[in-house]
Amino acid sequence: MSSPSFPSIELHRHLEGSLRIQSLIDLAAMHKVDLPTTDPNALAQVAQVLEPMDGLDAVLAAFDLFQNAFRSLPAVERLTYEAVVDAALDGVRILELRFSPGFMAQPAGLNWDAMMDAILSGVRRAEQEHAIAVGLIAIVSRIYGPDSARETAAFAANWRESLVGFDLADVEEHWPAKEFSGPIAPVHKAGLPVTVHSGENTGPEHIRDSLDWLQARRIGHGVSLIQDEELMRRCADEGILIEACPTSNLRTRAVPSFEAHPARALLHAGVPVSINSDDPGLFDITLSGELHVAQAHIGFEQSDIQAATACAYHGSFLTPETKRSVLEATPEWDFIPLG
Question: Residues near 135 by Cβ (< 8 Å), separated by ≥ 6?
Answer without folding.
Answer: 94, 95, 96, 97, 163, 164, 165, 316, 317, 318, 322
